[in-house]
Amino acid sequence: MYDHLNNFAADINKCMRCGNCQAVCPVYRVTRAEADVARGKLQLGRALLEGRLAPTPRLSALSQRCLLCQACLDACPSGVSTCNDIMALRAQAVKGGGLTLAKRMLLAGLARKPLLDHGLPVARKAQQVAFRPSGPGYRPRFPLGLDLRRIYPPLPARSFLATVRERVPRPRAELRVAFFVGCMANYVYPGTGEAVVKLLGSRRADVVIPGEQHCCGYPVLALGDPVTARAMAASHVRLFGSLGVDYLVTACGTCGESWRDHYPELLRDDPELQARALALAGKVRDISSLLGELPSPGEMLPLSRRVTYHQACHLGRGMRVGGAPVDLVKAVPGIDFVPLADPGRCCGGAGSFQLFYPELSREIAAPKLADIRNSGAEVLVTGCGACRNQLEGLLAAEDWPGRVMHTAELLALATP
């Protein structure tokens, strides 16, 4: 589906150029460039379809300057599937324009789990040489194409999947739940994975964690390679489809959205696999949503902390996970919850966007950082590892004294 821009021609032509997307686009708010907003990208797609543009490196670069945050999707009065159209534009543009070397290297790593598994200890040692300790993490010593001002988290010695059993049984279990870990919880924040397993166990769930799982494939799809993304989706559907679980839990909105929305679409040319993907899609839950659906495990431990919450784009707009995370946090005894003025405003992280466009990403994040500081909170929680990475690094660089955590980690602290 995403391989051919022609499949999206009718949707692209629904755009009436009203400009509503300009009012909400985080990139456009900074650059004021028409090519950076959904309306402009749809016009590039139309020109490509009509033969007025060719897929060149310039077009490929323009198509990549988008967070895929879905703000335009919500604002569009014509119901244009802007993000899907932009991903199809990227796939078409990449065919002729290619990707930068850095993006090709990232794509190769995400598509090959052994590279990431074997590369983690190497990257950890390299981090200790090429970066210098700073606050809670590391700051680059040299201009490596990264933001020299921000702080990056210390990489773990081993991935989460390398340390956890594939089945974590629970006495008198009432549920069987598969846990899809995701790259950030696996390679950067293994404490998130540990928290999810603890929380599921507290709800009397047997937890199944297949060791062969890999990246969800969304970053690959977003970079313009639907062929590889399709193979990754098929691999996961075969792996998880045989587990016989009640739920498939994610701790990342992007991963959850991939399972629920993109896998069935990517596999539409294989009816048998698509049927299995659709069956799994109905079982997908973000960890906060599932905890909200299940009975409370009983009395929670008190936590005396002032907490605020950042709503990740793909969790809020994508998976439509609304108030569940906040309700769970508020239910913890001792928590003083203070809402942000604009909790759903994009932080500018968007996975690899923060790596490839560090200055633009920082400018997009500035209002969010001010909102967090003004809240007076000492703990910021979010349901996305990429958002956590972005906000943690930028706030630490500003010497913000608070702590950034995954929502599951805070809830696990309050779970006996």
Q: Please, could you describe this protein's structure?
A:
Helices cover 51% and strands 11% of the residues. With 416 residues, the protein is an alpha/beta fold. The protein folds into 3 domains: 93 residues, Fumarate Reductase Iron-sulfur Protein, Chain B, domain 2; 126 residues, Rossmann fold (3-Layer(aba) Sandwich), CATH 3.40.50.11810; 114 residues, Rossmann fold. The strands form 3 sheets. It has a 5-stranded mixed beta sheet. It has a 4-stranded parallel beta sheet with strand order 9-8-10-11, with helices on both faces. Strand 10, helix 21 and strand 11 form a beta-alpha-beta unit. It starts with 8 loop residues before the first helix and ends with a helix. The mean pLDDT is 94.
Strand residues, percent: 5-15%
Second rung of CATH, namely the architecture of the largest domain: 3-Layer(aba) Sandwich
Q: Note the overall shape.
A: globular
Major β-sheet profile: 5 strands, mixed
Strand order of the largest sheet: 3-5-4-6-7
> How many distinct domains?
3
